[in-house]
Amino acid sequence: MRNNETILLGHGSGGRLTHDLIRDLFVKYFKNEILQTQGDSAILNFSNDKLAFTTDSFVVDPIFFPGGNIGNLAIAGTVNDLAVSGAEPKYLSAGFILEEGLSFEYLEKIVKTMAEEADKAGVQIVTGDTKVVERGKCDKIFINTSGIGTLFPNTEGIVMGDHIQIGDKIIINGYIGDHGMAVMSARNNLKINSNIISDCACLNKLIEKALQFGHDVKFMRDATRGGLGTVLAELCEHKSFGINLLEENIPVRENVRGMCELLGFDPLYVANEGKVVMVVAKAYADKILSSLRQHPLGKDASIIGEIVEQHPGRTWLLTSIGGKRIVDMPAGEQLPRIC
Amino acid sequence: MRNNETILLGHGSGGRLTHDLIRDLFVKYFKNEILQTQGDSAILNFSNDKLAFTTDSFVVDPIFFPGGNIGNLAIAGTVNDLAVSGAEPKYLSAGFILEEGLSFEYLEKIVKTMAEEADKAGVQIVTGDTKVVERGKCDKIFINTSGIGTLFPNTEGIVMGDHIQIGDKIIINGYIGDHGMAVMSARNNLKINSNIISDCACLNKLIEKALQFGHDVKFMRDATRGGLGTVLAELCEHKSFGINLLEENIPVRENVRGMCELLGFDPLYVANEGKVVMVVAKAYADKILSSLRQHPLGKDASIIGEIVEQHPGRTWLLTSIGGKRIVDMPAGEQLPRIC
């Protein structure tokens, strides 16, 4: 951090710079055991209740994009962070930072979308806050949602992947890269008509299906900023296992692949807002896959790789033509303000 | 709301416009019983635990001011929202929105202050999020803190003031207006050397002293945005009681009064960040006052008014020269971005 004197866009990428900022600044000063786990949610023990607690701020640009807006994104993002921690999402807060001059019409549309998305996910927005800053001091609207969920039984260790073993399978619930490319295509300076629609969705009902398999689901994370590649690179970093990823099994839509090629992006690192990566016991992988495929948000689920003994700490992408390359955390920022 | 087509600074004032925005938009769409109570925290019932949950975004300008910075403000604001709801603050989240180009030196100073303030209050920051937006798309740094606390016994009804009775006394723990005027004096365009220091502080330990009196503390709220006047106007609105406020008993420092006169502000509506307004049973008012005065943050506590039968729904300020005026919620915004 000493080499950089100021905050760069890359510090918000979810990749290496974000990772280092969290370790060298936030974890250093706020130090406590709960924060150090660095899961998608903090796990809190009360007298009789085990709860998950998470927070996320949303600064997506533009605020409306194909498949959603900053409102349903803010609900889905936090619901999913709770769900992948093995919790049933229950209560959300909503903190708005509004730019003076924002139209009520936009704000009402966003709030309505939030209400609908919360309804679908079965969560309640129970507390909120509104701040307004002068014109030019924020970009239309930023939303923070924090959330509380009650942990399902048999989910201990899922946040950290404590029970991962060699041979475990890696599952994703569908096509990657849709959200990132949908937002990109909606940006004013890019006049691309791609027909790509964001995958933004609350995954808690889908995830509940997998959690019926109890301890055989060993790890889950939603592949948002930084994409699938970052989730896996982070998962095996400093671990005694490696990951082999089978390129041909990773679902990527043709139009997403095309737009990525055009713009020089790698779909592996493009943000999703409705994709969960799971590590599951080998013996139950097919059963969990079938179960996921019965849900609309899991119908394109696929087993995309496995936990291996070789190359510990590293994720390898095995390409369809027999090559291999290392999947590392991206150093900088390829797509700012995607969520 | 139909008459205004866009968001105004006043919608963030904590006064009438904020109030209407919450009612006509957020409560309308997010409708649920918990949100409708509109307390400083939502009260959540889990299987065996009663928790308070709250959120606040901080956009103060400038980010450093006499007596603190946006970091301790963000901790104190949320700790106090939990404490005035009758809860012991336990866990906080921290969501950062950073402007590209923010210096690490500033960020580290802010994070360090947050850690120190959290320590003092006995709370842990257990989860977080960092977003970075392009230069010019936010103002240096915005921080959201959400918080969870465990409710103390005998605090039911305190959020809404359900048990308030005619004759109850109103207490404030010290001087009003310090925070607002300290922030104002730090603004670049005002070269005022006022020696005013923000009262920004975590009040949870002070409030615990009062809560030993159980049901005799009937209502608490921290007088932040909108100040003491707004808290009281809001408290008695649509109620069957009124409030008489004794001007001469309200502690205002000479330099704060002077600066308010100079700038045309009313100290009653100026933000505080370390002041709690309490409604307490008449019979215990003196005992509670003495107890508060034993704590450094309560040494200037004062009984400033009472709940009356006359003028229901209205707060009257009885001036030292025998006059009276109605204390209403401010319509617009007198001090934007004070917290």
Account of the protein in words:
The structure is a homodimer of 339-residue chains. Chain A has 339 residues and is of the alpha+beta class. The first copy, chain A, folds into two domains: 32-151, PurM-like, N-terminal domain (60s Ribosomal Protein L30, Chain: A), CATH 3.30.1330; 169-327, Alpha-Beta Complex (Phosphoribosyl-aminoimidazole Synthetase, Chain A, domain 2), CATH 3.90.650.10. Chain A contains nine helices and 14 strands. Chain A has a seven-stranded mixed beta sheet. A five-stranded mixed beta sheet of chain A has the order 1-2-7-5-6, covered by helices on one side. In chain A, helix 3 (70-83) runs parallel beside helix 4 (104-121) and helix 6 runs antiparallel to helix 9. The longest helix of chain A has 18 residues, at 104-121. Chain A is globular. The model of chain A has no long low-confidence stretch (mean pLDDT 94). Chains A and B meet through helix 1, strand 2, strand 5, helix 4 and strand 6 of A and helix 1, strand 2, strand 5, helix 4 and strand 6 of B.
